[in-house]
């Protein structure tokens, strides 16, 4: 019971400020990335099963019939860029940088990371569409 | 001065992980920005060296530098991931005895994961690239 309350506590943002929002989503995004990490282990293990199997899997999740995974990949990229930018902010905080302007740093780092995300998605999409 | 600084320090896992493990979490995170950046560039953007399908992955892993890169990436990302999971589980208010079980369980999972990841990378690097 205590555990469930602990996780739910992440999402009680009222009156806690943007720093708490950053903290809660750092954890949530972290959990998503850990899940993906082990999924990645499983997908890459199929390299041992040969080119036909591996290319079938990669092809089916990129060009269909399971190309819904491209949408999941976009969400995953969003989560990774968010987590990385907020992580750099926290690392700078550890060195005493940005503590006085935490809110500004949060928005600044997330804005830069979202611009990088859009650029990444554009080129990644071109890779899928053009080859 | 220091008091003021501490007052505005953002909420993190520092308290639950302890200063040493939090330090390693931060350092590994900084390294991962580099590793993930290189990986996303290499694997998902077509600037002349994309890796996506079987042959391109094999070609890439035949280069010992890339093999070393991905093994190091595997060790660091898995450490960062499982250390983060530990912080989350600890924050759920579990008993000290359960914490010990969680800590040893995650260490075991880490060791198994990096052995598997390293073995997979080395095995892939030894597969001959099929002729075109």
Question: Could you characterize what this model shows?
Answer:
The complex is a heterodimer of chains A (131) and B (132). With 131 residues, chain A is mainly alpha-helical. Chain A contains 5 helices and no strands. Chain A has a single domain (5-130), classed as 3 helical TM bundles of succinate and fumarate reductases (Up-down Bundle), CATH 1.20.1300. The mean pLDDT of chain A is 88. Classes of the chains: A mainly alpha (131), B mainly alpha (132).
How is the topology of this model organized?
The complex is a heterodimer of chains A (131) and B (132).
Chain A: H1 2-9, H2 17-45, H3 51-63, H4 68-94, H5 102-130
Chain B: H1 2-7, H2 14-17, H3 19-44, H4 54-61, H5 64-90, H6 96-125
Helix pairs in contact in B: 3-5, 4-6, 5-6
Task: Give the N-to-C terminal Cα separation of chain B.
Answer: 67 Å
Number of strands of chain A: 0
What are the low-pLDDT stretches of chain A, counting only 5+ consecutive residues below 50?
Answer: none
How many structural domains are formed by the residues of chain B?
A: 1
Q: Into which percent range does the helicity of residues of chain B fall? A: over 70%
Q: Looking at CATH, which topology of chain A would you report?
A: 3 helical TM bundles of succinate and fumarate reductases
The CATH architecture term of chain B is Up-down Bundle
Shape of chain B: elongated
Oligomer: heterodimer
CATH class membership of chain B: Mainly Alpha
Which residues of chain B sit in consecutive blocks of at least 5 with pLDDT less than 50?
A: 1-7
How does the helix and strand content of chain A classify structurally? mainly alpha
Beta content of chain A comes to under 5%
Query: Main β-sheet of chain A, in a few words?
Result: none
Q: How many domains comprise the coordinates of chain A?
A: 1
Q: How do the helices and strands follow one another from N- to C-terminus of chain A? A: HHHHH
């Amino acid at each position: 019971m205590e555990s469930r309350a602990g996780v739910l506590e992440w999402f009680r943002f009222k009156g806690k400020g943007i720093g708490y929002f950053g903290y809660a989503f750092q954890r949530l995004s972290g959990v998503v990335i850990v899940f993906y990490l082990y999924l990645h282990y499983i997908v890459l293990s199929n390299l041992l099963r040969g080119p036909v199997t591996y290319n079938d899997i990669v092809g089916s999740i990129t060009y269909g019939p399971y190309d819904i995974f491209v949408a999941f990949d976009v969400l995953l990229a969003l989560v990774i860029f968010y987590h990385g930018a907020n992580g750099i902010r926290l690392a700078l905080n550890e060195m005493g940088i940005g503590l006085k302007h935490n809110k500004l740093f949060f928005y600044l780092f997330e804005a830069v990371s979202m611009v990088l995300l859009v650029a990444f998605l554009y080129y990644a999409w071109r890779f899928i569409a053009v080859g | 001065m220091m008091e003021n600084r501490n007052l505005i320090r953002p909420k993190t896992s520092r308290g639950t992980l302890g200063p040493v493990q939090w330090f390693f979490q931060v350092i590994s995170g900084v390294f991962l920005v580099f590793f993930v950046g290189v990986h996303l560039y290499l694997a998902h953007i077509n600037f002349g060296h994309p890796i996506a399908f079987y042959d391109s992955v094999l070609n890439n892993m035949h280069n010992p530098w890339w093999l070393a890169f991905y093994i190091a990436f595997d060790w660091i990302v898995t450490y960062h991931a499982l250390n983060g999971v530990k912080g989350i589980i600890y924050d759920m208010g579990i008993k000290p005895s359960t914490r010990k079980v969680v800590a040893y369980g995650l260490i075991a999972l880490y060791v198994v994961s990096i052995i598997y990841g390293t073995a997979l990378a080395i095995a892939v690097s030894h597969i001959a690239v099929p002729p075109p």
